[in-house]
Amino acid sequence: MSHPLAKTFIIVLGLCASSPAVAGEPQFTRIFGPEVPTGPYKHPACMTELANGDLYLVYYGGSGEYGIDTSVYGSRLKKGEARWSTPKVVAHDPFRSAGNGVVWQSPDGLVWLFYNVRYGETWSTTRVQFKVSYDNGETWSDSSMLLDEEGSMVRGRPIVLANGNYLLGVYHETGSDPEFTAADTYSFFMSFNPKQKEKGWTRLGGIRSPKGNLQPAAVEMEPGHLIAYCRRAGDYDPKTIGYIVRAESFDGGKTWTEGKDTAFPNPNAAVDIIKLRSGNLVLIYNDCMHGRTPLTLAVSKDGDKTWPIKKNLLADPKNDYGYPIILQGADDRIHVMYTSDKRGVVNHAVLGEDWLLGQ
Question: In principle, which of 56, 71, 107, 185 could form an S-S bond with 212, CB 3.0–4.6 Å?
Answer without folding.
Answer: 185
